[in-house]
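Protein modeling request. Please complete all fields; requests missing the sequence field cannot be processed.
Requester role: graduate student
Desired output: 3D structure, token encoding
Chains: 1
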Amino acid sequence: MTTDELLARHRAVMPSWMPLYYAEPIEIVAGSGRRVTDAQGRSYLDFFGGVLTNMLGYDIAEVNEAVRRQLSTGVVHTSTLYLIRQQVELAEKIAALSGISDARVFFTNSGTEANEAALLVATNHRRSNQILAVRNSYHGRSYAAMGITGHRSWSASSLNPLQVSWLHSADRLRGLLSRLDPDEYVDAAVDDLREVLATQTSGDVACLIAEPIQGVGGFVAPPDGLFGAFKKVLDESGILLISDEVQTGWGRTGEHFWGYQAHGVTPDLLTFAKGIGNGFALAGVVGRAEVLNEVHAVSFSTFGGNPISTAAGNAVLDYLLEHDLQANAARVGAILLAGLRELADRHAIVGAVRGRGLMLGVEFVRPGTTEPDPAATARVFEECRRGGLLVGKGGLYGNVLRMGPPLTLTEEEAREALGILTEAVATAAA
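Delivered output (430 residues):
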């Protein structure tokens, strides 16, 4: 069966709102390390990693062996009505690494479900359905998670079970607070938080949920310390802080293991997903026992934290720590960031380069302006594929290339990717 035939079958049975990348979609049929191969035999350096999910890369022996060992028992699933050794062991590791005291861990299948669980316990704990969220954010595709997503492209409905009040995003290119230096930005954002609490809520707000770096929003990040400044205001009323670490967790930013650690604060709850499973469905929420225990009914996740996914998760986390991939993300990410900044200096269509570690974004604009240029972004995107590099897209206006390669990326591969991207931008700008 050809790729065109598969595409026709896809369109015949899948909903129209499921996007496919590229003018000529590809089927990935093999992978090794940081490279994948499509059905036509073409090899690519993968800089999007299944949307920042294949954190170690492809065909990792230690993960494969852990999954095979579990499969060899004949037990793929039991449900959490029974003890699951792999789940308990992984929960112990994550609780210890979370930075949250007296932590409890609840496993789910996806980041969306993790955020739903965090909202459930926060609203129960505070007996309130009022939520603070951030413009340009993304927290998932389910009903409540969509309601706290401040990104129009991903908000399929205005119907919402929650009462949401919105804080300013940290867009430094064209946001309302973009002209302020970092200290002034933090002060203005805190003033905005106080005003929102005073004018748009009845005071008994459940929580603030925020991404340390906005993923779908185009890798937009606030100044360091903002969450800490927010937490001082939130603590005055007992409002909880949820850090959405679905994309920023596990050392991806290089500087810290969790994104929240750049802000001198410990959240009440943090959600995780993506990289911890390295392709297996694994996610969850961590929180203080007094908060996470606030579910006054029988509840569990049928598949969340199943023996196969947690076997993989334990292997992934052990590999990550044993190989110090956080340090590798910092080192190799610095090479990429420097190269991308040089690229911005040479081409006026590059409006901004931002990110940390191996979480990097390039925003494209019409030369001489801050006006988004999604058409130029699409050209660069397609040229990267033609050159053998897979990247992602995002941003409020669809004009940001997103790069989240595996944390095992080598310096040589980083320079190879820069070469491909440099040619792609030059071609698009011509």
